[in-house]
Amino acid sequence: FSFSRRGTCISNEAVALPTQDENRGVYMFRIDNDYVIDATITGGPARYINHSCAPNCITEVVTVEKENKIIISSCRRIQRGEELCYDYKFDLEDDQHKIPCHCGAVNCRKWMN
Ligand SMILES: C[S@@+](CC[C@H](N)C(=O)[O-])C[C@H]1O[C@@H](n2cnc3c(N)ncnc32)[C@H](O)[C@@H]1O
């Protein structure tokens, strides 16, 4: 069992999809430079977890018997009915490629990237 911190969600920009006016859902998660898990067609309910600038969950990638797995765990107490969210940690982009963030957190960075 090996464990290391890696993994981020993949932004629309990273897959050359929409602009900020056309923010279509992307269901990909980058494990590392060479490996992406694509949940566009199928996957568990976790693929619907949204980004937040004040997340209540964190993601980690672990390798179990040579297979990469994404682990999502809470990083603070979560109230009943509260939406689960984590920080997608998108790479920063210049102004014309920004994706607006709608997480609604008090400390929202206003952009997802
Ligand atoms: C993994 S999907 C999350 C589920 C998606 N919201 C849905 O309804 O199917 C990721 C996509 O959701 C949208 N999204 C997630 N968090 C967001 C946020 N805080 N602000 C704006 N769009 C967000 C973006 O389009 C992103 O590419």
Structure write-up:
The protein has one domain (2-97): Beta Complex (Beta-clip-like), CATH 2.170.270. By secondary structure, the protein is an all-beta fold. The protein has strands at residues 2-4, 8-9, 28-32, 35-38, 50-51, 57-64, 67-74, 85-86. The N and C termini lie far apart (33 Å). Mean pLDDT is 86; it is low at 1-5. The chain contains no helices and eight strands. The structure holds S-adenosylmethionine. S-adenosylmethionine binds at residues 12, 23-27, 47-48, 50-51, 101-103, 112.
Name the overall outline: globular
Instruction: Please identify, by name, the CATH architecture.
Output: Beta Complex
* Secondary-structure-derived class: mainly beta
Alpha-carbon Rg, integer: 14 Å
Q: Specify the CATH class.
A: Mainly Beta
Q: What is the H/E string?
A: EEEEEEEE
Count of helical regions: 0
CATH superfamily: SET domain
CATH topology: Beta-clip-like
Unreliable parts: 1-5
Q: What's the mean pLDDT score?
A: 86
- Small-molecule binders: S-adenosylmethionine
* Strand coverage percent: 25-35%
Head-to-tail CA distance between termini: 33 Å
Number of domains: 1
- For the biggest β-sheet, the strand order reads 1-6-7
Query: What's the total count of β strands?
Result: 8
Highlighted features:
113 residues, mainly beta, Beta-clip-like, 3-stranded antiparallel sheet, binds S-adenosylmethionine
